[in-house]
Design brief:
This protein is 27% helix and 26% strand. The chain is an alpha+beta fold. About 9% of the residues have low confidence.
Length: 315
């Protein structure tokens, strides 16, 4: 009996082995369930990161206030068409940068992205501003004297003198210097007007600085006058009689502070400023006189453009 059962088992095993297909020889005869399917990428959840206390996927777009938004970068032409890319030549950083769009500055306001780039001004407004500037420029050119727009005034031509040696052949009436007004228009020649400009810019303005808001006005004590020196009988004709001199008695700052030669000379901060102005006039002018010169100049500075062989005369 045991022999019969053993024979039956061997027969069943032999039959099963014969019925199994030879997969190594005939792969096209494999059952459909045994054919290997192509592998597909499995989408994995993006890792989470923490930004400003919020947990968000690492590949999510996060807009932080004060930073420009991230724009999708278009791939350069060489990256999308590898067939025409030179073999063995890698793109440089300049090639990559040339294909990146400029980021638009923006901020996050009330949950909305707002561009911080200023909008274009209306054309009408631009034209209005430009017209105003052209008008101001023409006004300066019309008021310019001695070929310098910084010197504003009026050309008056020849000024005759009643005494021998007086008079100004090509006189101008100076009203302001680089925006600094004169208390009264001063008649002089262009050489003296340009000297006044050099002194105002390089002496008076620097000496005052920002004190009181800066220099705003100059008080003129005397300009052209056909007379002798210090009005003394028998003296020579003054440089005032030739349009080459100006006397200054005080200067004013933007807030109305007065720097008086008579009251402030040698006293405190204002006195030190006046002394610097007096010293700075030596060079632009040939003669510089102040309170220390004589009794005739206790209350003003006298500047004139007379020249001497020994150089400027300053007292």
């Amino acid at each position: 009996m045991r022999k019969v059962l053993l024979i039956a088992v061997l027969a069943v095993q032999a039959g099963g082995a014969a019925a199994a297909p030879d997969q190594s020889v005939r792969p096209h005869l494999r059952p459909a369930s045994l054919v290997e399917a192509p592998m597909r990428p499995v989408a994995r959840p993006a890792p989470e990161v923490q930004v400003a206390g919020l947990v968000t996927p690492a590949n999510a777009r996060v807009l932080v206030a004060g930073t420009p938004p991230v724009r999708p970068v278009s791939r350069p032409a060489w990256a999308s068409t590898p067939a025409i890319q030179p073999i063995g030549v890698a793109p440089t950083s300049d090639d990559l940068a040339a294909n990146l769009p400029d980021p638009e500055p923006a901020v996050l306001v009330m949950g909305e992205t707002v561009s911080v780039r200023p909008s274009a001004r209306p054309r009408a407004l631009v034209e209005k501003v430009m017209a105003k500037r052209r008008k101001a420029k023409k006004a300066l050119q019309r008021g310019a004297i001695c070929g310098d727009t910084a010197l504003q005034g009026e050309v008056i031509g020849t000024v005759p003198g009643r005494l021998n040696g007086c008079g100004v052949p090509n006189a101008v009436k100076l009203k302001s210097v680089n925006g600094i007004k004169l208390s009264t228009p001063a008649i002089m020649d262009c050489k003296t007007a340009k000297a006044v400009k050099r002194w105002v810019d390089g002496g008076a303005k620097k000496a005052i600085g920002n004190y009181g808001g800066g220099l705003s006005r100059i008080k003129v004590a005397a300009h052209y006058a056909c007379r002798t020196r210090n009005n003394q009988p028998g003296a020579k004709i003054s440089e005032h009689g030739k349009g080459r001199a100006i006397d200054i008695s005080a200067l004013y700052t933007a807030d109305g502070t007065e720097l008086s030669v008579l009251k402030d000379w040698g006293k405190g901060r204002e006195g030190r400023m006046l002394k610097k102005m007096h010293k700075a006039a030596c060079g632009p002018f040939g003669t510089v006189l102040g309170p220390n010169a004589d009794r005739f100049h206790r209350d003003h500075f006298h500047f004139d453009t007379a020249r001497y062989r020994s150089g400027s005369y300053c007292r």
